[in-house]
Each structure stands twice: as C-alpha cells, then as structure tokens.
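Standup, Tuesday
Yesterday: got the pipeline producing structure tokens again.
Today: sanity-check two examples.
Blockers: none.

Example 1:
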Amino acid sequence: MSDPPLPPHPHPDAAPGGRGTALRARGRRATRRARMWMSPGIGVKRWLALFVACTLLGAIGVLHFTWTGPLHFTATRWILWVNALIRPEVMPLYVGGIVLMLLALFGALWSIMMLNRSVLSGTGTAPDQAVDLMYQNRHLARGPRIVTLGGGTGMSNLLSGLRVHTGNTTAIVTVADDGGSSGRLRQSLDMIAPGDLTDCYAALSDSPVMARLLLHRFQRGDGIAGHTFGNLMLATLSEEEGSLSDAMIDIHEVLRIRGRVYPAATQPPTLVAHLSDGRTIRGESQFAQQVGAARIGHVTLDPPDLPALPEVLQAIRDADQIVLGPGSLYTSIIPALLVPAVAHELRQTPAPLIYVASLMTEPGETDDLTLEGHVQAITRHLGRAPDCVLVNNAMPPRDVIERYAAEGAHLLGLGGASRDLRGRSVILPLLHPGQARHDPAALAQALLYAAPRRDQTV
C-alpha cells in the first residue's frame, strides 16, 4: 500500500522554520561532506596540497618570465594600474597582490570542482555521493577481514552492524532451510535455500531501496504469496546461470554489496538431527515439532560430502576473525560447520574463532542446554573450540522475559560455567534496548575492539 499523499504546502518559507531549517540542514550536509573529503585515507589532501604548490610555483614562473622577458613593459604597466586602484592608506600595496593571488587560487579550485562535478554527472554518479563512495572504497577497504558463519536474523543483524566499520566482511550462510518460502523454492527448483542469503544481502546492500525490496514479502497472488522478492530474484538468477553459486558475481554487482555473501555449500543439503532416544529427524523445519522430550545429540548433513565455493575457503584463510553466530545453534551455526572443506579450513586457520553466545535457549532444540553445552556442541561438531565467547550481561525487560518463558525459552548466562569457559569469555552489554536480541552496533563494537584478532594472537 502506498503512503497517503502529503497535504499541499503553500511555500517553504511558510512552514515553521522553513527556509532557515532547510539552510541549516544543507549547511550540515556540506560540513559533513567537507570533513569526509579531509578524512585520513581518502587520498584527496595530498593532491590538493600538490595542486596548491604547483599553482604557486606556476605563479612565480609567470612572474619571472614577464619581469625578465619581452613582457616586462606590459607587466610594469599592469602593476602600476593595480597600484592606482589601491589606496595605500587603506591597505599596503603588497596586500593587493596577496588578494589577487588568493582570488586566482580560489578560482582555480572552483574550476577543478566544477569540472569534477561535470565528469561525475556524465558517468551517472551524483556529485554529492562521490565522497561517500570514496570514503567507502578507501576507509572501509582498510577494515579488518571478518568472516561470519551462520544464518537467520542474528546473522543479518550482525552484518548490519559490521558494514559501518569494514568493507571486508564475508558471510558464509547455511543453506539447509527447508521451510517457508525457501523450502518451496528449494523443492520446486532443486536449488539451495535462498532465505538466509536474502537477509544477508539486504543487510549489506548499499542501496536502501534495494534492501527494502529484497525483504518485501508478497501477501497475495497465485504462486507467489508468501515469497519474498529477494528469494524470487535469487531463484531467477539461479535458473538463469544454472546454479546460485554461479550467479554470485552478478548478485554482488547488482545489489551493491559492501562485503561478500556466499552459501556454505553449493548443493541443497538436508539437515538430520540424531536424538538422545535413538530417533532421527530429517529436515530443519521439523526439529521444533518432533524433538519432544529428547535432546539433540548431534546433527549431520545429507549428503555429507558437500562441495564449497573456492571463494569461501580463501576468505577463511585470509580472515582476521572468524565469528560464529549469533543464531540458532543446531539450525543456523552448526550446519555451516558441517561442510567438510569449510570445517577443515576453520580448524587450520590461525584466526581466532569467536562464538557470539545465544541470548536464550531455543524451544524444541536447546531446551535446558547451558551456555557451556552450546560451546561443547560447537567443539564436538567442528573439532575446534572457540577461542573467545562473547556473552551478554544486560537484562531484557521483565515482560519480554516472561513472554519468552511462556514459549519455553530461557536466558543463557555463565551461571555454573567452568573456569575454562569463564577465562575465554568477554562479558559486555550487547542487548538491543527493550528487546531480547543483540544490538548490531554494540555487537560490532565488541568484535572490533574487545574480541581478539589474528594480529593479537600470532
């Protein structure tokens, strides 16, 4: 449904603070752009300084030529004419020369700026966006190389926080989902589940419009009701290219991704849960309904020998940090660790392995499982223990806790944890205010400044 039309406005000046507010807002934007132009690493200040130096040197050269060459008479007449316009009692004669020099320099800088504006407009880039693009390409390109593994809303929340600090994020997303829109497309087209990929693309897209469209879910229409636009787009590209993994380059270009998003496997797997009572459950969407009073002992993928993209393996080798979660233990995090090549690289990399602890248990999946039990499950499936565990110590509102408790979910903490786990834990307030989910900004800050990186561990 479109937004209702705005009421007619008689004139900008008639609105409260109309023109003054607009001018102040324009001034703030101009000040912000100026600060970004002058920020370290953009690569502008050095060339601006060189331009000014060359301009002054050129002025000296012109002065030397005219004063010592055939234009000496003309230069003398010009200086006498300028001197006649200046009153010595108002300003010294040399000040007039400085004023002329500054006016010429300002005119030269203005012409360069307008030339750049014309060139940018001709290439389809809005001049006001140029500094944002340069800041992204220069500043964010120097950010840490962070690899995240998992899926669900926890992964997309983390990525939305990291994108502000680095352009070198690589998200490795589980593709074992077999429910909802993803399950329908997977069954119809024999493709990997696109749902979690769509959420991650939206979180990292530099186009706000595209990010919003990717998450739009159709509420009506035969055959498309329940599908998101992003899932349908990924299905289209998968059909066009032969597989979704072959369409990765096109997807990153079309969506203007700040970083990279890859599926953990290139073929659609089935997640299998092996329960403590000897039963097995096939299909991620069946876990919560069929586990019952039993516990999940371990999970596997069918088929087990799934291939991984070379870009995924190279990203793990080059990573400064490997982040697991946040997300559901058995349906988001561990499935990404079960791809053989991915697990091998994770065990070999010197980069620290950081587990973002879940805030609450998952009804039907991790009932009564402690935080230490979560860490032990990751260690058992991967063959490597996390080097660091990020633990939230902020309390959600009481009504939120009660609402989750009514659904069978309970808070996770370090109560009863071993000395080893406490020694590897970093405890910080990571909670989104008033909710029971991680705050993207706080979590990104914790990973960048509190959790270890490769250069801190080597």
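Example 2:
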Amino acid sequence: MKKLKVYRLSLGWQIMLGLVIGIILGVVFTNDKKFIAFANGLGSTFINMISMIVLPIVFSSLVVGIANMGDIKKLGRIGLKTLIYFEVLSTIAFIIGMVVSNFAKLGYMLDLNKLSQVDISSYVKTAKQASHSGLGSILMSIVPSNFFEALAAGEILPVIFFSCLFGLGIAAIGEKGKILLQFFQAVAEVMFKITGWIMHFAPFGVAGLIGATVAQLGLESLKPLGLFIVMSYVTMAVFILVILGIVSRMFDFRILDQLRVVKDELVLAFTTASSEVTLPRLMEKTQKLGVDQAISSFVIPTGYTFNLDGSAIYQSLAAIFLAQAYHINLTLSQQLTLLLVLMITSKGMAGVPGASFVVLLATVSTIGVPVSGLALIAGIDRLVDMGRTVVNVAGNVTATLIIGKSENEFDQKKHDDYVATFK
C-alpha cells in the first residue's frame, strides 16, 4: 500500500491562519469583555514565553561570540559602526515619512467631529515618566549596578554591556575559560531548541492578539482612518524594497533574498506587533546566512533598541498628518525643527513601552497640535504598529549582513547555499 503524503503548513502559513481566525472571532465577539480578556490572555502568554528566553539567548550567544572574537578594539569598532548605520537609516526614514505625508495631504480630509475620542491617559503617564530620562540617562543606564537585577527587569542594553565584558574576560584567561565557553555554547543551543518548541504556540498567540484588537476596536471604527493606514503601509513597503534594497545592493546582497529567508519571522512580527518575538530566530538565521556569531549576537539585540526605521516612518507621517487635520500649515523651517525634535526625542524614548506613540506625545506640541489630538490615531496605533515592526525586523536583518560583510566576518558560500534552499 502506498503511504498517503501528509502536507504540513509552514509556520508562516500557520500564523496567517491564526491571523484570519483571530479577525473572524474578533468580529463575532465585538465588545465581548469575556472574549477580549481570554484573547488578551492567550496573546500575552505567547509574548511572555518568548520574553522568557530572549535575554538568556542574548547573553549566552553574545558571550560565546565575543569570547571567540577576543578583541576589544574590534568590538568597539563594530559597536560604533552599528550605531552610525542605525542613525543614518532612521534619519532617511524620518525624511521619507515627512515627504510622503506632505505630498498625500490626507490629514485635510478628516472631519474631526466624526471621530470618536480614545482614552490616551496611559500613554500620557508613560510620556511624563519617560521625559525625566533623556538620551543621557539611557546611555548612563547601560552600565548595570546589578547584572542579575537588569536581567530580571528585561533591560537589554545593560545585559549586552555585561555580556561583552564577560566574553572578553573569558578570552583573556585563555585555556581556563574554555569550560565556560563550552557551557554557554550549550546554553545557547538549548535556548534555540526551546524557541522551536515555543513557536508551535505562535498561531494561537497571534489569533488571541489580533482577535482582542478587532473585538475592542470594531471594523467600523477603522474606516475614517483607513487611508492613513494605507499610506503608512505603502510608505513602509517602499522603504523596505527601495531604501533597504539599494543599501543591500551596495554590499552585493538582494533584499528579496533576505525577505524570503525571514518571511516567517516577518509574518510573526506583523501579527504580534513585537520585534522581541523574532529576536531568537533572527540571530539563528543570520548566522545561517553567513554572518559570524559575534556580529549577529551584537547587532540584532542592539537593533531591538536602536533600529527605529519603522517607528521613524510612522512618527513623521503621523506628526504631519495631525498638523494637517488641525489645518496647521507648517513652514519648511518648522518641519526641519520637527525633524530635529523627532530625531532627538526618539533616541531618548528608546526602550520605553509604546515608544512610537510616546514620542509623538512629546513632539506634536512643538508644532501646535494639542496632545488630545493624538486620540485621533490612538485607535489605529496597534494596526500601524504591526507594519512598523516588520520594517524594524527587516532592517535588523539587512544591518547584520552589512556589518558582517564590512568586518570581513561573512561566509559568502554559506550565505548562497542557505538562500538557495528558499528558492
């Protein structure tokens, strides 16, 4: 007898199925508090499962990578190069967002009287707390007074700092450090194995997250701001395909190859609106793409905090959009000032929960938009957040490949062989 061939959906398709089921359930159970609570619980459980393993993976992988590198000057060069790359790309993203919003003029089409007001008090509270800790405070907080406290609090920059020092320390003691190196290599491999198990729960988590969102907002409430959502997604798609595409070609990479390889992670980022859930698999896949472990283990976690391409596009689009909604005609000098304020504020808010929306709260008052005006887009923030997270994840992959190649820590044959498996 011939055995029946069993077709198994890939993770990406499973997640998409979860997305569709979540939307349907959200429509069926609109404003049902019990369903919303259950769906949020399901989604939060998945996010917590991923969050549980992110820092152990970052710590173990970075320690192994830096120990094998063993060169503090090289580490400093890689760090500086990474931060400059992220800054340049996020500045381009800010400018593109402002240009598109000026050209589209969608804000003028809004009827402010027809839009329901959304409670943004939680964002205002976060903004007030974050305003006391600017960029300087964030840089100071990189050095932890207690590593285990930073690990427990989920503070990724202090963990990166300590991991780099610990890895360099292992390299400095030579043979004696080999047992530690083997231990952390084993820890990293165990964490990646656990990641694979957790990802089987992803479709359920996605269904819960999107179902709760649709049930809370309702599809009808999204219609007035539908054009803004479309404008945001089109701009983000152009940034990925054109800007990241051009940057990739400058280093002999193809953006479409990168998107094929990490398509499952992009779908996961889109449906959960979280970069964190993709971090373990991105570190693993970029290493399979030929990037040295030390580069991958450093650039991707750093990008989780400083790679702001998607957020930059959204913030600049939204700021101009809101000004137009209130019929505030900004001069060129005012827009340049807005660009400068966005660049500074976004760095100061890095790592703050709901950072993109908090940046807008701290910024729009400089162009005359009342803070209460952000209630206009608060309802769709989650939906746009899904798109900007995809841009951040795609940007992280491109950055890792480019930094790896610029440091000659890149295996072209390994890259080509791995890409070929996705064609």
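Quick observation on example 2: The first helix runs from residue 11 to 28. Confidence is low (pLDDT under 50) at residues 1-7, 115-120, 122-134.
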